Amino acid sequence: MIDISKSALLTRSDLQEATEGEFKGWRTWTFDTFLNENGPFWHRVEADRSIRCAFRAQKKHLNSGGNVHGGCFMAFVDYSLFAIAGLVLDGPGVTVSLSSEFLDAAHEDELIEATGEVTRAGGSLIFVRGELKSGERLLLTFSGTIKRVKQKPRTIAASRR
Asked: What is the pLDDT of residues 123-133, one digit of tens each?
């Protein structure tokens, strides 16, 4: 059994917990400038140890048709992939594949939630599948693969990029 209190999902230095508002008690990572600009996306560990991710659709998430942009869904799915795998990933990783099926549209002010499961966690690859919903409405299903990576020592030149 995994001790989630020591998991990188909960103990990373770049993890921020909301202290007020709709997502009070939920957490987000602050290391990724893309996610900082395009979120906020949030996650929490449920009582049954499953991971739930969510965001509230804002005007900036919409396409010209007034629906949440497919690219926004995919960014949120990628975020959710790592949150769902977080209890077994326990270190850095990269997405090596991500597949999705768009089933319905979402609109401004809707709460979009992701849930899923790790279907297999090997030595170098972690396989995840899940779904996005707004209430009971299924919006998207997804599957993805994360590759664990070893952190390489950063050189001075690399750290300036």
From this structure: 999 999 999 99
